[in-house]
Design goal:
mainly alpha, binds heme C, Cyt_c-like_dom_sf, 8 helices, Cytochrome Bc1 Complex, Chain D, domain 2, transport, heme binding
């Protein structure tokens, strides 16, 4: 296992198992569309994602601990969360298919509170949302995530 995966497992603690699986799982979507519309992504984020992940991408309180229903709360998408630990393909699948279906594709059984948006949002819209989220990260997180996306796309 590459060193950064081990580090993220250690750093994530309770959410580590899911985080690790998502880092290694995730079908790859070849490329993002040529014309990314970050402004549209932001609007779509507010309409579809902010209710759980927060208007400022701050996530829900105590997101590392499962709630009474056994499900993990919605994590932040800002640099305090682990969204930036995952390559593009994983973020795309998680958004399009929902957490459970995205992980089931990889043979991983995991109850997830993340719904799938494949019926409501086009692929281009999902990429725009992901691009908006990424545009809010500081340079270091963006660089790390870009490297992981490149590695995943290259099958490394
Ligand atoms: C009903 C609440 C809810 C809504 C709405 C929602 N999510 Fe989530 N999301 C969750 C939860 C809960 C998780 C943690 C899932 C898990 O444990 O698998 C999550 C996880 C994720 C993850 C992977 C976790 C990570 O590492 O950050 C991504 C990516 C994600 N959501 C994107 C989105 C996007 C994009 C939208 C809007 C299109 C959205 N979510 C809308 C609840 C929600």
């Amino acid at each position: 296992m590459p060193r950064y995966l081990m580090l993220s497992v250690i750093a994530l603690g309770a959410a580590g198992a899911a985080g690790w699986l998502m880092t290694t799982a995730g079908a790859q979507r070849e490329s993002t569309p040529e014309s990314i519309d970050i402004a549209q992504g932001e609007n779509l984020y507010i309409e579809n994602c902010a209710s759980c992940h927060g208007a400022n991408l701050e996530g829900q309180p105590d997101w590392r601990s499962p709630g009474p229903d056994g499900l993990l709360p919605a994590p932040p998408h800002d640099e305090t969360g682990h969204t930036w630990h995952h390559p593009d393909g994983v973020l795309f699948d998680y958004t399009k298919l929902g957490g459970r279906a995205a992980l089931a594709l990889q043979g991983v059984e995991f109850e997830s509170g993340m719904p799938g948006f494949g019926d409501q949002l086009s692929d281009a819209e999902i990429w725009n949302i992901i691009s908006y989220v990424k545009s809010t990260w500081p340079e270091r997180q963006r660089a790390v995530q870009a490297e992981r996306s490149a590695a995943a796309a290259a099958g490394r």
